[in-house]
């Protein structure tokens, strides 16, 4: 019989006022991006704000489509847009939040598996971690210091060689 592996991750839990001003601003930008999401089917608006090491902020929001597989998550919209516009940039952090169209409150959400994989690829490409902030209107913010903690046993380019 095989042995069990125990994986541990560390996610920080903070109140919004405990964060540095640049973190608070990035979260605010993610909220603004969520309000512009195209989500007529789910009415679930997700916003992302990606901060580059040079200080640029690239926004993304979910883009739905009546042919469901054709839509895209906010995190991937932000990352793909950033990489298309600034292919030599590296990324320091990404803030993510969401809200229902009919609700005034933002909620903390985690990236889906596909978004985690894309963010992980960016960490591999730049050879440094990307901090992930997940926030909601309740004032609680969850922070992971890297994407790899949220995607154990990830698939990467090392398998393709």
Describe what this molecule looks like in 3D.
The protein has 161 residues and is α+β, with helices and mostly antiparallel strands. It has a single domain, classed as Cytidine Deaminase, domain 2 (3-Layer(aba) Sandwich), CATH 3.40.140. It has three helices and six strands. The protein has a six-stranded mixed β-sheet with strand order 1-6-5-4-2-3. The radius of gyration is 16 Å and the shape is globular. The two termini are 32 Å apart. The model has no long low-confidence stretch (mean pLDDT 95).
Summarize the structure.
The protein is an alpha+beta fold. It has helices at residues 21-34, 74-85, 113-126, and strands at 11-15, 44-52, 57-61, 91-100, 131-135, 140-144. A six-stranded mixed sheet has the order 1-6-5-4-2-3.
Layout of strands and helices, then pairs:
Blueprint: E1 11-15, H1 21-34, E2 44-52, E3 57-61, H2 74-85, E4 91-100, H3 113-126, E5 131-135, E6 140-144
Parallel strand pairs: 4-5
Antiparallel strand pairs: 1-6, 2-3, 2-4, 5-6
List keywords for this structure.
six-stranded mixed β-sheet; globular; 6 strands; Cytidine Deaminase, domain 2; alpha+beta
- Tell me about the biggest sheet? 6 strands, mixed
Oligomeric organization of the protein chains:
single chain
Number of helices: 3
CATH topology: Cytidine Deaminase, domain 2
Number of domains: 1
| CATH classification, class level | Alpha Beta
Average pLDDT confidence is 95
In angstroms, what separates the terminal alpha carbons? 32 Å
Portion of residues in beta strands equals 15-25%
